[in-house]
Description:
Elements: H1 3-18, H2 27-40, E1 44-47, E2 52-56, E3 63-69, H3 96-110, E4 118-124, H4 132-136, H5 138-142, E5 145-155, E6 162-164, E7 167-170, E8 172-181, E9 185-186, H6 197-208, E10 215-223, E11 230-231, E12 234-243, H7 246-266, E13 270-279, E14 282-284, H8 286-298, E15 303-305, H9 317-320, E16 324-333, H10 351-363
Parallel strand pairs: 3-4, 3-5, 5-16, 6-15
Antiparallel strand pairs: 1-2, 2-4, 6-16, 7-14, 8-12, 8-13, 9-11, 10-12
Amino acid sequence: MNKDNLRKITALRHELHQHPELSGHESATKRRLMDFIENNTRLAVVDCGKWFYASRYIEGTKAVAFRADMDALPMDEAISLSYASLNPGISHKCGHDGHSAALCGFALELGSLPVKRSVYLIFQHSEETGQGARECSGLLRERSISEIYAFHNWSGFPENSIIVREGVCQYASAGITLTFTGKTSHASEPGKGLNPAYAIAELVREIEGMKGSALCTIVNMNVGGRNFGISPGEGSISLTVRAEREADMRKTYNSIISRADELAADHSLSLTKKGSDYFTDTSSDSHCVRKVRAAAGSLGLEVVDMAGALRASEDFGIYTKLVHGAIFYIGNGEDYPAIHTGDYDFNDNILGTAVDMFAGIFAEE
Length: 365
């Protein structure tokens, strides 16, 4: 890509990194991105509340979309950076700052590319919670968009390699919090109360022994406090269920809830359930993956076929349930820190590759 443009989006990426915002609260991030595109391109920019898109419409042509996410994670900045997060407890440890900067870079490059079809650049909020794509996906039908693409940076692969997989490439997942309520009593008279710890312990042991295609991860447990004179009357367990196919995930998810209902009844407890962070499985269409391969080939980039679907979830699957599309991955480096860890920061060396890949895919008719 144009070197001046690369410098611009690298600086933008660092600015976004300094001012991270959590899912559903990306107002300043959105404003920065909108200002960048309005000040540096001729694309039409449409504010959709929590998200926005930029576009160039050409009458009578098929439309293609490219998507970037822009939310950060509830994590402290754990490494020393000249552009470190200024917001305590929030940081871009997934690389969405780089995803958005790269899509802005593609917006800059569109000014010098022959545009033969309509193009929409979607800047999406709330990817980390699985909500954003649901709220943005209506644009696909509204604008008769026929294809959509996105990329994610990924560690453990050679730097600037392009990783692809046809079919399911990221697991479905869902979170659930189960709260068991009984009756508090004095610790010396536990028989006069209903302590939920035993029901929760049984559930944990059964989850530990689960077999099948789904993976269940316990992320939090809480029963009572460190008051040695009180037998608690309430406790909760939060867990994530994930599987390659949404149907398998739902089956295990529902069986855990059903078992929790039985344990609550067995222990004379009441049970409340709260779901969160629901993600369908994310698939890439074979025709669209071929375009990704072709773009990588024209750039002389190494293409890696992913052996199996990634267990991490991604809400891009909402889009590819509606239209043809593909998500591809750009390698950060084989020994590069993993996303969602304290040592991670988006690798600026792959920014230009992301922009060039978007341009290459766009050139494929």
